[in-house]
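$ ./design --mode recover --in tokens.txt
reading tokens...
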């Protein structure tokens, strides 16, 4: 179970995972070697499962980001779950509770590509699409108590 120092390390790395162990150590008051040991333990125990890169997709020509919620037709959930990994536009997929079964985050170049993707998905269920206008930056990235 992580202690308070591990939680502080996680909070610092969530803000900027590119910081060196020395920089993290300066922020939380540990030596670089102690930070390295703790980070390695957090990785070995799968508390830290990876590091990610954030990309400005708009600058790469992908102008539309959206969430698509899907309420699958009876008997179509498992086939849909099998096929969504083949859609390159789908960046994240979640099984959810409530009125829909699956929630997708997608990135497409334009409205036509969005329309084609929705048409493909509609054979598995009803869709509800929300275009992302902007991301709201949160000021508190601490883990909940």
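writing sequence...
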């Amino acid at each position: 179970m992580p202690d308070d120092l591990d939680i502080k390390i996680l909070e610092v790395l969530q803000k900027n995972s590119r910081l060196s162990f020395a920089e993290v150590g300066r922020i939380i008051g540990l030596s670089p070697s102690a930070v390295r040991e703790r980070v390695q333990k957090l990785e070995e125990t799968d508390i830290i499962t990876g590091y990610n890169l954030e990309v400005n997709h708009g600058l790469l020509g992908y102008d539309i980001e959206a969430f698509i919620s899907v309420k699958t037709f009876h008997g179509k959930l498992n086939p849909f779950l099998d096929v969504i990994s083949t859609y390159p536009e789908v960046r994240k997929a979640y099984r959810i509770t409530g009125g829909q079964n699956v929630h997708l985050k997608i990135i497409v170049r334009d409205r036509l590509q969005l329309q084609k993707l929705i048409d493909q998905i509609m054979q598995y269920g009803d869709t509800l699409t929300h275009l992302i206008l902007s991301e709201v930056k949160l000021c508190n990235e601490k883990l909940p108590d």
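exit 0
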